[in-house]
Amino acid sequence: MPITEFLSIRLLPPHTVSSLFVVTFLGKVSRLQAARSGYPVLYFQDTSSPDILYLVSGWESKHAHEAWIVGEQNQELMKEMQGAGEVKELMHLEIDFSAIPKDAERMSREVLVEHGKADLKGLGGESNLNIMTDTNCIWESTAKSLEKEGTYRLRVYSMQEVSGKDVGHSSTKDSDGVLNMVAFHP
């Protein structure tokens, strides 16, 4: 069954999402990984921690992704990334990546059910701001992680106005276990 890779990366100072190295590097990752997996790579930036990036992509299986991880091309990419960023978390979700809208401009990942208390520090903080509303959700799926116990929900949101307000300026509310992301294109 095809799966969805969900990788979080923390950029290290002085690097930002707009740094020439980061833009060039992520473009290279996209080209090489897509050539290997056959799936496009989507990038998102955490809305409350701009130094946290998320790579979301598909693989035919967890095994196929693991073969890429230990392979020469990926190992070279990991060496190249040293000093600019560090991998914080890797999950494989039981979601067929081909079902996710590829023009997504906003996405959220929410912990629905978990075994014990979640360690949310690796997910961008103990509490994140939830700026999306159900009314502009255009796609969602609930799935289990292949690495850890728990159930997660991915949601994709449109950028259209809701109740006369731009989504990016909607009121915020605390929501434990929710990561909110905005797309960017290196």
TrEMBL record:
InterPro entries: Dimeric_a/b-barrel. It comes from the Eukaryota. This is ABM domain-containing protein. It comes from Hermanssonia centrifuga.
